[in-house]
Structures are given as structure tokens and as C-alpha cells.
Design goal:
Immunoglobulin-like; four-stranded antiparallel beta sheet
Length: 127
Amino acid sequence: MLQGTAFEDTIWVTIGFTDGDGDIGLEETTDKQLTIIDTHFNSITEDNIKQISVPFVPEQGAGNGISGTISIATFPNCCVYPSPGPSPCTPSTQYPTDSLVYEIFMTDRAGNESNHILTDPIILLCQ
């Protein structure tokens, strides 16, 4: 992925899920149930955590279990260099690549968090 601050590049991340209770998504709310954290920063801030709404899935009776896949478009992040080094997001020939891993989890209607999964490393091109 090319580093950047907007929509210069896109990578799609697809995750599979199974929920035994089938209580995924919330009706008419602004709450976000899918969390994506860019782990290549030292702390969690508004800049490296994204939360996404999941469509409401009605419960189906006694056998409420549900499974499926969700595909998420992720957009460029900035390369982060060792200190002292160039400022993040600036091109660097000294550090031509960086990598990041996303941590992803879901929260159901009861407030239960799923397992936290990690993506394979994604290579950022810093030049």
C-alpha cells in the first residue's frame, strides 16, 4: 500500500465471523460494533482506531447462530520512522518501507467482544 493521508490507495480486509447468539448489529443507533486498530503506533488515538457500524441482523428464534464475512476497505496510513528520523507521512529513501498490522474485533448487542484478530503485516511504501 502506498503511504498517504487520504484515498491514494486501498486494501480490502475480509474477516469471517460466527456468533452463537446471532445478536449482531444495532437498530437505529450511531454505536459502532466493528473496531479496527492500526497497531504500528505506540498508543491508541483517534488517528489509529476506526469504528464501523454493522448492519442489524434480526434474531431467528431458538437457533440464533449466525456466521458470515465482512469486507472492509482500508485506506493509506503514514509510514512511521525510527527516532530520530523523518516526520511521519514524508517520503524517505532511507526507510523505503514500513509495515502495519490491524487488530480487529466486533462487539455484539449484549456488549460482548469477539476474539481480537490480527491481520498479516501490510507493507507500506514510503517513497
